[in-house]
Amino acid sequence: MADKTPITYLFDPLCGWCYGASAALRNLTARPDFTIELAPTGLFSGDGARPMDDGFAAYAWANDQRIASLTGQPFSEAYRRHVLADRTRRFDSGPATLALTAVALTAPDWEFEALKAIQNDRYVEGRDSTDISALSHVLRALQLHEAADRLANSDPELIAAYRKRIEAGRAQMRRFGADGVPTLIAGVGGNRRVVRASALFGDMEALVAELKAASPSAIN
């Protein structure tokens, strides 16, 4: 009998490729033979944050169109007009990661749903996912009121948990030589290893087979 294959998903909520991979992640989370841990890396927060200037907005939109072509995930005109064209805010995934950490502390089984909702709010609805009030609205729409309250107050426990998760995510990137996100790490203990990110954008059964092959210890 096969045990569940544990998977760590290294990601950033403002990563377009992570949004493109959301359909594959949704399929994996629905399967009974996998457990998935969300591990935010803070890739675009702190020193990784940057101004949303004309050059970066043009680069982001061109990259988004490649992702849309490959995955079918929508990047709306509302996103282009109201997010990429906004010069008053930075490209900073810190607030969205903080929101997800609030969910992890209060309703951990809902974190993946919260991630999907935050991505949809940005890339489809065209709302600013660097704004705490907008993120709180997303959480409340999911009935995650305790998480929304903690996000609005940014209490010390939440800030400490946020920093701990970012440090852990970055440590795993260094340990496994990951140079970006999304990245999947499958297996347990010394048998854990990276599964190529491109597998997230291909055939689903091939991805499942690769994940299981990466974790032989999960099979009795």
What does this structure look like?
With 220 residues, the chain is α+β, with helices and mostly antiparallel strands. The protein has a single domain (5-218), classed as 3-Layer(aba) Sandwich (Glutaredoxin). 53% of the residues lie in helices and 11% in strands. It has helices at 16-20, 22-30, 54-71, 77-84, 94-106, 111-123, 132-141, 145-153, 156-176, 204-213; strands at residues 5-11, 34-40, 50-51, 90-91, 183-186, 193-195. A four-stranded mixed sheet has the order 2-1-5-6. The radius of gyration is 17 Å and the shape is globular. The termini are close together. The mean pLDDT is 94.
Low-confidence stretches are none
Number of strands: 6
Backbone CA Rg: 17 Å
Overall SS class = alpha+beta
CATH level-two architecture:
3-Layer(aba) Sandwich
The tally of helices reads 10
Number of domains: 1
What is the assigned CATH homologous superfamily?
Answer: Glutaredoxin
Distance between the termini: 6 Å
Summarize the helices and strands and which ones pair or pack.
Blueprint: E1 5-11, H1 16-20, H2 22-30, E2 34-40, E3 50-51, H3 54-71, H4 77-84, E4 90-91, H5 94-106, H6 111-123, H7 132-141, H8 145-153, H9 156-176, E5 183-186, E6 193-195, H10 204-213
Parallel strand pairs: 1-2
Antiparallel strand pairs: 1-5, 3-4, 5-6
Helix pairs in contact: 5-6, 5-7, 5-8, 5-9, 7-8
Short key terms for the protein model shown above:
220 residues; alpha+beta; Glutaredoxin; two-stranded antiparallel sheet; 10 helices; 53% helix; 11% strand; globular
